[in-house]
Amino acid sequence: MKICYIDHSFHQKTLSTQFVADILRKHGHEVDFYWDDSWQGGKSVCIDDLIGAYDTFVFFQLAARSSKPYYKLPINITFIPMLDSYGNEYSLHHHRMMWKQFAGVKVLNFSKALHCAAASHGLASKYFKYFPDPSQYETCETGEPLKGFLWQRHPEAINWHVVKKIAAATHFGSFHLHMPVDPFHAQVYPDQADIDRYGITVTDWFKERDDYYSRVQACQVYFAPRPSEGIGMSFLEAMAMGKCVVTPDCGTMNEYIVDRVNGLLYDLSEPRALDFSRAAEIGKMARYSVETGFDEWRRREAELVDYIVTPRDIVYRQLYTVNIDYSELAAAQPLAGSLAAKCRLRLVKFKQRVGKSRLRPWLNPVWQRIKKVRGKMKER
Question: Looking at the domain covering 2-128+300-373, what would its CATH class be?
Fold first, then answer.
């Protein structure tokens, strides 16, 4: 089967979504990548131009442009959303303006919260919990004192100052900060006094992935870099290495980590000092979690492939037991009917349109600045 794989162009650099395509190829399917660059004002992918050339389509995180609603197209589509693309709980579960466009599309989720949200809107959804292969990651004893690692990918949310509060009650021998940020984010640097006092070292980029892994291996404690994840490759890799992963109590991290069992969770809105006395034991449990989780992931591999290649009508018929009218799903009204709810939905729809336009690279830094100012106002 020939599969069209439409993906966010940022993943062309990180390769974090390659594993799904690799599985499809492993099972004998041909996969062609198309990279959508609309998120930074570049060219988007139009599915109209590809109909007839492929047997099935996969949308990873971004939805391709189309001249018609997806349910009116004679094609098989699987949408793989990422949890970190969605804001608060309101947007996730009651964002009808977003979910209804996927009427007649199968949804494949790597987050249980997203799976529940998609299913609540009548969409065919299946949940898979991803784990990396632990055999690809070495574990090693690093001894005392503790060393910490933070990749400051979203510094306006998680940065050195947050880590300093979390580690305030524990002696750390050193910290390493990896500084490359995600697009549209500005870096935050520690002051010289903290660099000297806490033994902070800094890197701007690693030429080879193994250099990054070596830095992580040298530490016992890994501070998760973002307030929310689509899947969370970086913290899952750290768990596979047997590190004590410290992360906000948010998805998808809290779907993998049980606080003080195989990781440490904290309230990002009010970070406080945590107890690291069992860091080594927690790291071992993190590794065990990945080992057992990977066995289950590998067992369900064929099920994932079958879900993607199975025609949508068959999947929806299994869900509803009757032939469903997709237009009813697409035309369904928002769950909340108040004027305030409708205004919020219209605002979200407007933000979506702007987010897909060429204005995004210029407006995103402004929006990030507004959120930062609002956060400081809340602290007061």
Answer: alpha beta
The pTM (predicted TM-score) of the whole model is 0.85
CA distance linking residue 86 with residue 37, whole number of Å: 19
DSSP letter string, 314-337: HHHHHHHSS---HHHHHHPPPS--
Task: Write down the pLDDT at residue 154.
Answer: 93
234-267 pLDDT tens trace: 999 999 999 999 999 998 999 999 999 999 999 9
Helix (H) or strand (E) segment spanning residue 172: strand 172-178
Could you tell me if 175 and 198 are in contact, meaning their C-beta atoms sit under 8 angstroms apart? yes
C-alpha distance across the termini of the chain, in Å: 58
**Identical fold at 2-128+300-373 and 134-293?**
yes
Confidence of residue 141 (pLDDT cuts 50, 70, 90): confident
- Which architecture characterizes domain 134-293 according to CATH? 3-Layer(aba) Sandwich (3.40)
Query: Domain boundaries in the chain?
Result: 2-128+300-373, 134-293
